[in-house]
Design goal:
Length: about 240
């Protein structure tokens, strides 16, 4: 019953926000933002809805503002003009480019005002500990523990990184510690490709050696949330 309730909650959240998080990632890529900035934008977006009702605000405006805020928080600031133009093209693919007209100035004012709103809602906290650095560290350690030929053929780094990027469609990083998210998604990738990792100690599996406070239950819970996300994407409900 608990599993079914979690899946239902994940589906309900994705139905409301999946397209907007896609919009954030697409727009961030067009703005040439580094991956940590795009991930931070998604986290800011998810965090905003922890205290606000989607019926009260335009999700795409919140997403656009999250990109603008994250670019500044991650020290790769974008001009508000560029954010507006790129986001407008991402959400209006069949429309002509946005001119410097009344519509542009209306959007600019909305983003500036929304930035102040988001800062207040977020308690002026715009920096988060993302799982990326943990995953990079765990991948390096795991590479040292496995046979070089097997490691290169396994594509575990690419697969686990893809899982991490895709996981930003749901507020995973707000529900679990970033180190747990990183090791769980790495475990998921290792299991998917069937890579054999030697245990580093007789009493501890490799993932426990990487992150001592993670449990099998946590790994399963995080993995199931990500699997539900993929299931929703393939079979929307």
């Amino acid at each position: 019953e608990e599993r079914a309730a979690r899946r239902k909650a994940t589906y309900a959240y994705l139905k409301e926000h999946f397209k907007v998080t896609q919009f954030i990632m697409e727009s961030g890529a067009k703005l040439s933002l580094p991956q940590n900035a795009m991930s931070s934008a998604c986290v800011l977006y998810h965090q905003f809805w922890k205290g606000c009702d989607p019926k009260d605000f335009d999700p795409y405006l919140i997403g656009m503002t999250a990109i603008y805020l994250a670019s500044k928080a991650e020290e790769c600031p974008c001009k508000v003009r560029d954010v507006i133009n790129v986001c407008y093209r991402s959400s209006h693919k069949d429309s002509p480019c946005l001119e410097i007209n009344a519509r542009y100035w209306e959007l600019r004012e909305s983003v500036v005002n929304c930035e102040l709103l988001m800062l207040r809602v977020l308690g002026f906290r715009v920096s988060y500990d993302n799982p990326h650095k943990y995953l990079l560290h765990y991948l390096k350690v795991l590479q040292d523990w496995t046979c070089p030929g097997m490691w290169e053929r396994s594509q575990v780094p690419q697969i686990s990184w893809s899982y991490l990027l895709d996981s930003h469609h749901i507020p995973l990083c707000l529900e679990y510690p970033p180190a747990h998210v990183a090791v769980a998604l790495l475990h998921f990738a290792v299991e998917c490709v069937g890579l054999e990792v030697p245990s580093q100690e007789a009493v501890r599996p490799w993932w426990k050696a990487l992150c001592s406070d993670v449990t099998p239950e946590l790994i399963q819970s995080i993995t199931e949330d990500v699997m539900d996300m993929y299931d929703f994407e393939n079979k929307p409900v």
